[in-house]
Amino acid sequence: MKPLVAIVGRPNVGKSTFFNRMIGERVAIVEDMPGTTRDRLYGDTDWNGREFTLIDTGGLELGTGIPVGQVGLTGQPGDIMDHVMSQAQLAIEEADVIVFMVDARAGITAADDEVADLLRRRATKPVILAANKADNASRRLDVVEFYSLGLGEPTDISSIQGTGTGDLLDRIVEAL
Ligand code: GDP
Ligand code: MG
């Protein structure tokens, strides 16, 4: 089995955009969890000759056309955060490396703080902080604010443009 790299983080930070950039047309394996619909996507990829399996947590809520705000186990808004936290907990249990993705345009949110607390307290495997949507020079400078999450250096990336993703992948395979 290849090492597992899980991408965690609140909805809309760009987890699926990064995953799709890495997995592309290759068919991803979908795993359903009880009570949820298709909430984890697995795809094999490699970087600098290191193979690993990337996991997109957070489900297909956008892909299904259902707005993020309406997804949940019982349809209540609180379910979204429960889902994010349970995916982060699952990543802590099974992943070899966790990529915690945040949104450089939005800055730190309460949800980011909550996920960061869990990762700081419970993760025994490396956690790499990726600040996505750092699409330009000024946004790349702004990502220093994410140091305050207490998870080390944020790597700025733009999953849409592809900038910084090589640096993030270098960090991922070094941590494997
Ligand atoms: P997820 O919910 O974390 O999986 O987020 P998605 O990958 O679905 O992305 C949420 C939104 O952010 C989409 O509209 C993406 O096009 C957008 N997005 C993702 N990555 C970037 C990026 O690097 N820059 C910008 N400007 N937008 C991005
Ligand atoms: Mg997604």
TrEMBL record:
Keywords: GTP-binding, Nucleotide-binding, Repeat, Ribosome biogenesis
Coiled coil: none
Domain EngA-type G: 3-176
Positions contributing to GTP 1 binding: 9-16, 56-60, 132-135
Family that this chain belongs to: Belongs to the TRAFAC class TrmE-Era-EngA-EngB-Septin-like GTPase superfamily. EngA (Der) GTPase family.
Subunit structure and binding partners: Associates with the 50S ribosomal subunit.
Record's function text: GTPase that plays an essential role in the late steps of ribosome biogenesis.
Protein name, UniProt field: GTPase Der
Protein's organism: Ktedonobacter robiniae
Full protein stretch here: 1 to 176 of 474
